[in-house]
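Saturday, quiet lab. Running sequence design on the structure tokens for the scaffold JK sent over.
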């Protein structure tokens, strides 16, 4: 497997594993009835807002990365550049943006950047 294919595979696996982890934590929170405020507003709890942006961002990043086939990249540098662009694109264009409030949007931006840093480290 070429380095560019390894990077693509690593990025996909990273998104899948962490998305499953965070969505599982959110699912447990929902099952325990701790995802919404009890005041009748239907708003999310602080704990829920700390969880769901994580898997939403990861799913959006994965969708962007999967638009590319691993053998499309000329070399490792091109693969890294395109995956970084996919992360940045997902951060701003994913469909779930309407689900989060302004504070969570800021958290989504921060999370997208932290995923970018981790993937860049893993690719080097």
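Result came back. Writing it out in full:
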């Amino acid at each position: 497997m070429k380095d560019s294919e390894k990077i693509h595979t690593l990025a996909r696996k990273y998104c899948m594993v962490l998305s499953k982890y965070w969505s599982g934590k959110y699912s447990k929170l929902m099952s325990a009835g701790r995802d919404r405020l009890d005041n009748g507003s239907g708003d999310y709890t602080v704990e829920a807002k700390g969880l769901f942006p994580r898997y939403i961002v990861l799913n959006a990043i994965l969708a962007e990365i999967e638009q590319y086939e691993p053998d499309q990249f000329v070399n490792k540098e091109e693969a890294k550049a395109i995956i970084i662009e996919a992360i940045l694109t997902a951060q701003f264009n994913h469909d779930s943006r309407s689900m989060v409030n302004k504070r969570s949007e800021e958290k989504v931006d921060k999370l997208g950047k932290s995923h970018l840093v981790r993937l860049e480290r893993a690719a080097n």
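Notes for JK: The chain has a mean pLDDT of 82. DSSP finds five helices and no strands in the chain. Ask whether to fix the surface positions before the next round.
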